[in-house]
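User: Hello! I'm new to structural biology and keep hearing that structure can be predicted from sequence alone. Could you demonstrate with tRNA N(3)-cytidine methyltransferase? Please show me the input and the output so I can see what each looks like.

Assistant: Of course. The first part below is the input, the amino acid sequence of tRNA N(3)-cytidine methyltransferase. The second part is the output, the predicted structure written as tokens.
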Amino acid sequence: MAAPHAVDGVERSSSETGLILSDSSTGDVKRPQFGTRFLTDPRQVFQHNAWDNVEWTEDQEAAAKKKVSENSQPLPPEKQEEYDSRANEYWNGFYTIHENRFFKDRHWLFTEFPELAPQCSLNHESRLEGCGTDDGQQDSQVSLDQEQSREVADGDFPGSSATYRILEVGCGVGNTVFPILKTNNDPGLFVYCCDFSGTAVELVKINPEYDPGRCFAFVHDLSDVEANYPVPDGTLDVIVLIFVLSALHPNKMQASISRLARLLKPGGVMLLRDYGRYDMAQLRFKKGRCLAENFYVRGDGTRVYFFTQDELHELFTEAGLEKVQNLVDRRLQVNRGKQLTMYRVWIQCKYRKALVQPPETQD
């Protein structure tokens, strides 16, 4: 699937403002990534463009639930089927219109997901000890070394000689892929990227920064679990899902995540950032745009779902992955010129494939 619309506020905000994350299941406040800008005096709300870790009052949450409930009358089944069957057409149309002008490169990824950075890809053991443990836990187990990795990946496929492999699903026009290629100079790195939209993939391939020696872009429907990937199972170190799972029909999410999990090496991680329940984008949908509970269609025909932490946790654990991080990012964005406030809710997850697989999952 493709990347989300910038009008939803993701691309033009998360890379420019502070970010602090909290784990709502424990109440713990995590180490700030981009900043610690807290709104302690409501009278100062228009002093900055964004405020971090803004919790809602009970009245705000009740109003959000009421708004969603009022606009939750699903469209007729025939209309839902139309949006599902024509999904590829809608995304290709989006990229035909906007090409590569719509999104900003996601340089914030290296702060939020250090697994993508050079120091984390140089060797798998150091990544487990220092780069993929945002919950403060140190993984004392040792993963497959590079020689074992080569043996597992023995075969003739793009990047078969690489020692560290990253796949981004829903790459759009490359706003994650190209920052990785520019920033991560690990000679053993190979990056795969795919999108539902053939138009988007073609834009990636014609980009001057596309290097076939380090990257392989291909068209792929994440929801088609029977379709083959260009890499064998058990060969990827990292899979990246940035505002892409939400574009799938909810009924197809579990099978899609389970299929991706098979591609990971033992110790490999899946990284996700996506829309949270009652995000501003959800509250803006009017009647006549609801496809199913918390699932909507935009004016251009593309679709979006809004998650809870528990829903994502269930998807990943059902796929056999272990939680490293599952955080909610609540942010207050401010339009100082128009004196408007906008509440954003995003969820960020890291889930790891166990180093020792249960007997029933081993080949």
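User: So the tokens describe the shape?

Assistant: Right, they're a compact way of writing down the 3D structure. Reading them back into a model, for example: The mean pLDDT is 76.
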